[in-house]
Amino acid sequence: MMTLLNTVTDTVSSTVDKLFFVHHGCYDGLKNLQKKVENVRLVDRLGARKPSCGTIYLTNTHLVFADEEQKHESWILHMHISSMERLQLTTAGFPLYIQCKTFQCITVLIPREKDCQEVHAILEKYSRAMRLEDLYAFTYQPSCDAFYQVAGWALYDTQTEYLRMEFPEKHWCISLINKNYEICDTYPKCVAVPRSATTPLLVGSSKFRSHGRLPVLCYYYKHNQATIMRCSQPLSGFSAHCLEDEQLLHCIRKTNPTHSSAPLCIVDTRPAVNSAVCRVTVTGSENANIYSDFKFVFLSIENIHVMRDSLHKLVEVCELREPSVEEFLAALQSSGWLKHIKSIVDTSAFIATTVGDEGVSVLVQCSDGGDIAAQVCSLASLLLDPFYRTLQGFMILVEKEWLSFGHKFTDRCGYLQGDQKETSPIFTQFIEAVWQVMQQFPCAFQFNERFLLAVHDHAFSCQFGTFIGNCEKDRVDLRLSERTYSLWGYLLKHMGEFINPLYRREDSQLGVLRPVSNPQNIKFWRGMYMRFEGWVHPKESVMERLCIMKDQSSSLEDHIKLVAKRVTSVKNLIGSKTYTNSCVKANSMTDSAFSSMSALSEDATINDVMSAPTYMTRSLQPAVNKADSLSPTNDGRSRSEDYESGIDSLQISTNTIASSGGENNHITVEQMLLELDSVAVEWKSVRKARSCSCAMQFEHFTRKYHCWRCGRIYCGRCVDKQIHLPGHESQRTVPVCRSCCKKVLCMSV
Amino acid sequence: MEFVELIKTPKVDGVILHRPFQSPLDGTLCITGHHLILSTRVEHHEELWLLHRNIDCIERRFDANRGAIVIKCKNLQILRLDIPGQEEALNIADSIETLSTLEDISLWYPFYFRPRQFDILEDGWQAFNVESELTRLISHADHSWRISHVNKDFTVCPTYPETVAVPKSVTDELLLASASFRDGGRFPVLSYYHGDNGAVIMRSSQPLVGTTGRRCKEDERVLNASLRPGKKGYIIDTRSPNLIQMAKNRGGGCEPEVNYSQWKRVHRPVERHTALQESLCKLVDACNDSRASMDKWLSRLESSNWLGHVKDILTCACLTAQCVDKEGASVLVHGGEGIDSTLQVTALSQVILDPDCRTVRGFEALVEREWIQAGHPFNDRCGKSAYSPARSRYEAPAFLLFLDSVWQVYQQFPCSFEFSTQFLIVLFEHAYASQFGTFLCNSECDKRKLNLQRRAVSLWSWVNRPEVLQNYLNPLYEPNKSVIWPSVAPQSLELWSELYLRWTQDNSILDETNKQILCIKEHNKELRTKVVRIRRQLMDLQKDAIEKGLLAAGNHGNTETASEAYSSSAS
Which of A105, A366, A737, A740 is catalytic? Predict the structure, then answer.
């Protein structure tokens, strides 16, 4: 049972309804089962679906709700629970209302009060850990064999990434000044600084800045040598000005020789009022008089507390029951959420154009330098550099701007028990901002919406060690890279799910993305916030179809290559033998073989001409027969029919093609047929696919998989095998369903 | 009348055209009887041809020696022309204004337009002949419906076509009586027959009940004849009870339950007329303000309530479709006059119910049957678009609202429509200004008077030409035989940015995306053909080789799998 549970947790959106236990029939074997409550009713957020009745199983990681009658299953990771409330008693039982960080909201109605209390207590206990070491990541074991613990941990390396940016050694260097985290404990070991900046200068500057977060390089734009830098706010109150800090900024300005006269642009993301207040009190902006070579731009983005409240209101918008359009829009407006998203996109676009178009370097400063700076620096880099719009590049971007520069994931995402005042949806906003840009540039990103959701959910799930801790130092101290699995390793292993079918590498090379800042273009992301309300979403997905088409094309292309090769070798065979006139006299056996063969080929020809689909549906028949036949007699009969139809004539001595290519010296007819049989030409349409053969219902977000051999549709769990198909020229492995897998493997033996 | 009299300055050099996202165009401006032309006079360089009818209104911004004219078009585009010389600018502004607002329909471009670029392959006027369309519609109805010519020469109802479908058992005399009891003579006629269960949608105008409670037994009989045995029917009224009360005072009203005991009346208020027009104006204004703050935009979008109207129409259409498909009940839809909201609802419910309506031909037929021939007064409703300050009380973007609602359904079922969303935009543009006669006039009767079929070209003649149509096809279309139920929740509704934001943002990325989608689709199709061909080739070669005895067909060890592969790939 353990493996089964792990399969569940492996699936990326691990809160999603999935994985049906109907075959296995029992949930009692779930690992670490804490409690089981029967006759529970589950009501979704808006009560749209008819409440389902089933059993709750609580393990120490998941809440599982199983309704075996309606074949419906919900899995909620305890870590994803953001709040719970016991509502007033109803006739149906004691309601427990659960809100998740993935924006799933459910109410469970439990018949007995005692059970309700207990469930509440268990969830309370497991949804927030006492210590980081208690988090799920430290006990998580993946089920699939080929996913190794080390995978993904080495993805990001500071030096390699800076070298990739091609920053000139003449102006920049990687300093080890912080190698024991002594200058700034929330910065990484290696920071990139101007070569001309001496150690005293750096130390002096760090003392002048809040939390010691001195200005360091984020991104170097090789086309014009301009850069993006980040830092925290200065502690101006300490001393009127700091000579070292000033000098450091001058050094930075001079690293951009092409625009040596241009001032350094300092983008202050605190509201102007706010920063004026700060100056009066303790900390504040650099005094503009002193820093005359610098241009100050105030692009205010609200603080973490405002953002948290805004998200709360947004969640309330999603909970409105049957709102009118007016109510919905009014509530959306008053949440202010889209306004905040727009300010992040706008600020990032400003930075990207300043760097990319004007060639002016930008220094971003916000209060602590770990929240807003992370959002805008990473988004600006993503707009500038096509690399960050690839799967790996995005992971590296998150590693660099968020993890290594100390965004406090533990605090912001609320992993631990205690004060929730430090939580804020800063990372969620970044993910959404990327999505908003993606909406405007559908072909520029290698990854898709599903990928963003996966990264978002796992920032909260604590299933992987990637996001645990508040800074690089924490992660080193916890030895996460040895003790836990990396999200990146996991995502890369399942890369196929996350590819945007519209992605065009050549397009994305065009460089800087310039998102339009019209408010009309910032949209409510129902795919995130109303993910679990299936009925509000489009019933047909263009992206899904495109993905399938691309997969199918890739399979066919591969297959065509192989068939072409066979055609050549058979042609050569005919050609050479005829030429040497060494034609073997056909014996009576081959004669009969020939007659049946010719009949068959003619048949095929006619079918082909008539319609390709018919041809393939027919060719799927035997596979279907095998897979669906329940009684062995049935199976046996279909086989015996096969025998009668042509086997007799096929039972002849082995005669192989001496292919001129040399490599395929022993190709027999049946091998060729086997190759043809192993690749499905027509794939089943997803339109009618409501559930997998394992009875699991497909939800709107469920990824449906085609078996590349039989072309039928399965859920992710039923297509868990990847094998090489004999009909493919390349040696790659592709997804197949279980029965096809068996078939192919037994044939190749 | 000669257009020359209206054109004081036919030609000006050195005019600069400003458009968003495009660099200014410098050229010669010409005014002809129907077009405003700006040409750079360089070969292969783009020219602007703007139909005067497409101009919704103009604004003059003059200074000492040059004039700027801001042209706001009915397709929502806004252009600015900088014209050297004040007098020229003045003359041009005057000409444009006069030419764009000519009252006499027969002076409009469709009466002058002769297609030179194409021959007419199939005459669009004949493509959707009323009689054959209706015959097709009732062909599944096992003779319970018939075609009636009671309205020959438009004598009974001037806004109906000459041919209508009515219950078989209803005589023309009954229809005449019923027509006298209905507003504008619009007696109940068949709109849609649901092949799955025989339920129907009918439409009419309001009954003339009045304050005295008039009754017309013939009308009741007409309606009851459409009922299926043992089933109650639904009357869906698109007005609020308040509006109905007001209508009663003016002689209209609704069917009282005492007299129509077999019918259940339901009210689903849908906004109409001026309110709709204002809503559109507010929406377009808000969309054009690209510098607004997020708060302002959302509040303006909200206060326009356009999406609210879309939701109302969708809700009402879904209800109608539900009665028909789920309950198998007959439905009569009407509002007041039965030429606006009624048509929105009946047409949209057919898009939901009928897979045919989601094909190009089917949708064209639907627009013909449920809008043009059903007497939606396009001339009155689409005279002005979102900009013009001078509006009559007849203006209403009822058709646009319908297209928007279809677009919303399209968003939720993007693979169930044969046409692309671009096709809907084409229909919108041609409804407001066109070189074709399809959307001219208020009714079939008016068209007949102007002899339009002879004198103008049909939009369908052009759009159905393969080389034109291929631009408006949906590459991801996969015929969907089922009823498609859209979500009407506000969270599911979106702003039709392709239309409303078309001129205020750069759409090149959208085009690129569409191209990419087409590319993926084409590649896939190509490979599928190729694989079948090459497999066949291999088979033939094998046959050949075996024939020549070069290749043996199998071996002992592996017969079972071979036979399996054999039968599966070749049988």
Answer: A366
Note whether B487 contacts A524, CB cutoff 8 Å: no
Question: For the CA atoms of chain B, what is the radius of gyration?
Answer: 28
Q: B480 contacts in A (CB within 8 Å)?
A: 687
Residue A537 CA to residue A548 CA, distance in Å, equals 20
Task: Find out whether A494 and A12 touch, Cβ atoms under 8 Å.
Answer: yes
Q: What is the pLDDT of residue B356?
A: 94
Tens digits of residue pLDDT in B508-563:
888 889 999 999 999 999 999 999 999 999 988 888 888 877 777 654 334 344 33
Q: Who's near B223: CB < 8 A, 6+ residues apart?
A: B188, B202, B233, B255, B260, B263, B332
Task: Specify the amino acid at residue B198.
Answer: G
Distance CA(B400)–CA(B383), nearest Å, equals 13
DSSP one-letter string for B3-37? GGGG-S--EEEEEEEEETTEEEEEEEEEE-SSEEE
Using DSSP, state whether A429 is helix, strand or coil: helix
| A538:B564 CB<8 A | no
Task: Work out the number of other CB atoms within 10 angstroms of the CB of residue A660.
Answer: 14
| Predicted TM-score (pTM) of this structure | 0.88
Cβ-based contacts of B412 with chain A (< 8 Å): 537-540
B552–A549 CB contact, under 8 Å: no
Helix (H, G, I), strand (E, B) or coil at B138: helix
Q: Which of A80-94, A125-139, A207-221, A334-348 has the highest mean pLDDT?
A: A334-348
Residue closest to A553 by CA, chosen among A705, A704, A726, A680: A680
Task: Respond yes or no: is residue A707 known to be catalytic.
Answer: no
HEC-encoded secondary structure of A248-279: HHHHHHHCCHHHCCCCEEEEECCCHHHHHHHH
Residue A723's H or E segment, with its range, is strand A721-723
pLDDT band (50, 70, 90) for residue A657 = very low
The CA-based angle B480-B481-B482, given to 5 degrees, is: 95
For residue A552, the chain B residue with the least C-alpha distance is B524
**What's the mean pLDDT when you consider all of chain A?**
79
Q: Are A574 and B298 an interchain contact pair (Cβ–Cβ within 8 Å)?
A: no
The answer to whether the Cβ–Cβ distance between B505 and A521 falls below 8 Å is yes
Confidence grade of residue A547 (pLDDT, cut at 50, 70, 90):
very high
Query: How close is the nearest chain B Cα to the Cα of A444, in Å?
Result: 10
pLDDT averaged over chain B?
Answer: 89
Nearest Cα neighbor of A456 from A480, A483, A428 is: A428
Distance (Å, rounded) from C-alpha A335 to C-alpha B319?
Answer: 32
Give, for B444, the enclosing helix (H) or strand (E).
helix B444-450
What does the alpha-carbon distance between residue B23 and residue A198 come to, in Å, rounded to a whole number? 49
Q: Is B223 exposed, middle or buried (0-12, 13-18, 19+ CB in 10 A)?
A: buried
Strands (E), A341-468: 362-366
* Tens of pLDDT, residues A595-645: 333 333 333 333 333 333 333 333 333 333 333 333 333 333 333 333 333
Task: Round to whole Å and give the CA distance between B304 and B288.
Answer: 13
Contact state of A601 with B542 under an 8 Å Cβ cutoff: yes
pLDDT digit string, tens, across residues A62-79: 898 888 776 777 889 999
With H, G, I as helix, E, B as strand and everything else as coil, classify residue B551. Answer: coil
| Complex confidence, ipTM | 0.92
pLDDT computed for residue A564 by the predictor: 92
Q: Which residues in chain A are closer than 8 Å to B292, comparing Cβ atoms?
A: 519
Asked if A504 is an interface residue toward chain B (Cβ–Cβ < 8 A), one would say yes
Percentage of the residues of chain A whose pLDDT score is greater than 70: 78
Three-class SS state of B385: coil
Which of A:365-424 have CB within 8 Å of B? none
